Amino acid sequence: APTAAVVRQLGVRLVQNEGRTKLRGGAAQDGAALICSHYKFALGWAFDEHKDAPAVLVVEDDFYFSPDFLEYFEANAPLLDRDASTFVLSAWNDNGFWGKVRDRGALHRTEYFPGLGWLLTRRLWDELRPKWPKAHWDHFLRDPKQHKGRESVYPEVPRTFHNGKKGTFMDLGTHKKYFADIAYNTDATFRWPHRPPSYAQAAQEVYEPRLAARLRAAPAPAGGLDGWDALPGSSGADAALWYRVDKATPR
Fold this sequence. Notes:
One of its GO terms (molecular function) is metal ion binding. The longest helix is centred in the N-terminal third of the chain and has 23 residues. This protein is α+β, with helices and mostly antiparallel strands.
């Protein structure tokens, strides 16, 4: 495989999962089960092999990486130990499209697990390993029964770009719609501050009051989206669009 060839070329130790699972679903169902099984194998091997490692950084073979990808994790990983309300640290923003993000140093929080380059602590792995699912590991991590209200921390400007266009759940149309216009950081001069630490902005006791204040101060368009263009203000100003979720309607 191309990935294995690159690993060998770089002289890095290669560990392959040669286990086989008997499946009877269709292509997508089988793929989901195999992917999930492989994640459990890879994460289990990494933590068992490196018994002193406090965390594992999970990446995929179809990423482009920002110049500060590793620095991002080094600078912000301490938050996972200091704030019990955090879940994982991710390099990805699902809404990080061109024209929608601007602050390279901003961090945000979400209950919706982002993935696509993320740091998993040994403490959380010990919690999840005994109940790891048979399929769809990412949806498993988004289940409130698993995250228990803990939130993932992610950058406003993504630090990875998903370049894969063909896979179990990926095709060219999906890539163009959700991934092609992601504005990941390419500025090699950007540095994460350490004094004060950059992760402090995402601590729950700092982040929640600041977000609430911004929402209170932000104008809301009359008539919802129809009134959006009538809002005063300059480019980059805050605006709030409020909506009500009908819990009786399937989502």
